[in-house]
Amino acid sequence: MQSHTKNVKEGFSTDYRADMPEVIRNFLIYHETIKGHSKKTVDEYYLDLRTFFRYLKLERGMVPKNTEFESIPIADVDLELIKSVTLSDVYDFLSFLSRDKIKNPRSADADCGLESSSRARKISTLRSFFKYLTLKTNQLEENPIQDLDSPKIMKSLPKYLSLEECTALLESVDGPNRERDYCILTLFLNLGLRISELVGLNLSDIHGESIRVLGKGNKERELYLNDACIDAINNYLRIRKGEIALDRRAFFLSSRKTRISRSTVHALVKKYLMQAGIDSTKYSAHKLRHTAATLMLHNGVDVRTLQELLGHENLTTTQIYTHVENESLRQAAQLSPLSGMKQDGARPKRQKTDKD
Questions:
Q1: Is 106 noted as a catalytic residue in this protein?
Q2: Using CA atoms, how far apart are residues 269 and 292, in angstroms rounded to an integer?
Q3: Residue 280: helix, strand or coil by DSSP?
Q4: Mean pLDDT of 325-332
Q5: What distance in Å separates the CA atoms of residue 97 and residue 10, rounded to the nearest whole number?
Q6: Are 30 and 86 in contact (CB under 8 A)?
Q7: Is 282 exposed, middle or buried (0-12, 13-18, 19+ CB in 10 A)?
Q8: Each residue of 74-99: pLDDT tens digit?
Q9: Residue 123 to residue 147: CA distance in whole angstroms
Q10: Is 31 a catalytic residue?
Q11: 95-104, long-range: CB within 8 Å, 24+ apart, which pairs?
């Protein structure tokens, strides 16, 4: 397999309907209209399929070998080319992703090779695409990648702030937007919101002691507010209602009186982390979601309740937070009858039971 060190800028600036061959365009429309996936998710499918078919055309000699990877067109991809895809093609593609694909095309000397999680996402897209062609539209008689294995993903434990660090973070809030910023941090730390959910909040989503959140896949969920959230919301609303907003629906406003952006939220989180004396390179707005989940689990919230609160579709996603100190597991280890055995020959004391 050839090495291709030049790659496409991972950005999506055009409407896929104007740039895609019909067979792929119909797949994307299916996911956006029938499956109800967000535009961001559909855009990621677009980029993944574009990368794969650019790679395939280059490997098959359908374009000159010196062609810039990002300039390879895929508008000519048809069903005949798709039918010719083999399992070996996809494994070669995986090798290209892990060895030759540039991580950050914006950098002149970017490293090559995508992380296993990025490779797994692209494989998931290909699986979905071929499953659609085989089972939904019957354009393929057999799925050529049915037996494809996914890259093993090294799962790392989520980073989270301690209770003391959370307190310091909230106490660091100051400045002209203190009511707004304090409210944002409070909702992150108490409700575990995604940043997209927070910036998407509207005034109509606030209902006294509860809040309506629009999560992934346009799925709504209702979250109940504790006293800290209610107090922070009420303090901010007193400021918010007196402002002339360009976006009247938006709950959180920027200094320009438009809906607050993700970049603004990321920036203010970093700002207050630094003011609180916390390493801002290790934490982000998403880490505040990890923090909320971990602290709730540590303080008695069961995993299934946490799953509903966070808006996770699968319980396995939530179970990553069970790394927190679990006293029942700690006690179980201490209650082992051999827990007192030491190498110097000291025998464990027998635990008294109700029979004694």
A1: no
A2: 15
A3: coil
A4: 50
A5: 13
A6: no
A7: exposed
A8: 999 999 999 999 999 998 998 888 77
A9: 12
A10: no
A11: 95/1, 96/1, 96/4, 96/55, 97/122, 98/151, 99/3, 100/3, 100/4, 100/5, 101/4, 101/7, 101/51, 102/5, 102/6, 102/7
Q: Find out whether 124 and 86 touch, Cβ atoms under 8 Å.
A: no
> 234-269 burial string, b = 16+ CB within 10 Å, else e?
ebbeeebeeeebeeeebbbbbeeeebbeeebbeebb
Q: What is the largest CA-CA distance in the chain?
A: 85
What's the rounded Cα separation, in Å, for the pair 230 and 183?
Answer: 9
DSSP type of residue 250: B
User: What amino acid occupies position 128?
Assistant: S
Amino acid at 180: R
Helix (H) or strand (E) holding 206: strand 206-207
Angle, helices 39-59 vs 116-131, to 10°: value is 90
Catalytic site residue 342?
no
Whether residue 180 lies in the annotated active site: no
Give the number of other CB atoms < 10 A from CB of residue 104: 11
Are 101 and 112 a contacting pair, CB within 8 Å?
yes
User: Is position 286 annotated as part of the catalytic site?
Assistant: yes
pLDDT digit string, tens, across residues 100-117: 554 444 434 444 456 777
Helix (H, G, I), strand (E, B) or coil at 283: coil
Predicted TM-score (pTM) of this structure: 0.59
* Rounded Cα gap, residues 183 and 199, in angstroms: 12
Active-site residue identified among 4, 54, 180, 194: 194
Assess contact for 213 and 312: CB atoms under 8 A.
no
**Length of the chain in terms of residues written:** 356
**Is 289 a known active-site residue?**
yes
Catalytic position from the list 99, 212, 216, 287: 216
Element housing 327 (H / E): helix 327-334
Q: How far is Cα 316 from Cα 107, in angstroms, rounded to an integer?
A: 36
